[in-house]
Amino acid sequence: MASGEESCVVDIPEGSQHQQSCWMEPIEDQVTNYNRDKEEMHWKNTSIYRIPEFAMKMKETALTPWVVSFGPYHHGKHNVKPIEQYKQKVLVHFLYKARRPLIHFVRAIEQVLDKLRGSYQPLEDEWIKDEERFVKLMIMDGCFMLEILRIDPNNGDKSYPDHDPIFSTHGARHKLPYIKRDMLMLENQLPLLVLKVLMQVEAGESRPQVFVI
């Protein structure tokens, strides 16, 4: 210690009844109830994160989707809105080929709802409070992603109309690259568990065997 400096000693008498500030009590409660295993499970489930604001501002165009959103983070934004109605057409086509009722997919996704929500860090309140909306999002975006992954990039998907804007030969060659580019964006992702469950229902498994990925 430099010459002339005095040490600072806080004298707390034994048995003193020091009144806690309002912010202290919840922290001390968390310390008392701390469970390492529970915290580990929380972070283990998380797989899709928000990009820090400073990084977003540095490379906004490189880190955000141009054409289509997957998941909650960019859903409803102006630049990706035009394709939302088209996703519903793709869902209809997916269900028609699968020959499975929509309710089977809904029930299967509901079974893993907590795991899917836990994949996002953070997940806004609007998606936590409205369970039905989140389930719909996972099914709409999940079925669309599955169909995109199955396209022949040179010839399209012949089960769709010849002039379909994306699944036709022309659409696959000229629009598919932009969609796949958006699928690589860090914030623009779906948990793999969504695709796994949808594919199991599509294959006719009455009780999908869901494993942690």
Automatic annotation (TrEMBL):
<dbReference type="Pfam" id="PF03140">
    <property type="entry name" value="DUF247"/>
</dbReference>
<protein>
    <submittedName>
        <fullName>Uncharacterized protein</fullName>
    </submittedName>
</protein>
<dbReference type="InterPro" id="IPR004158">
    <property type="entry name" value="DUF247_pln"/>
</dbReference>
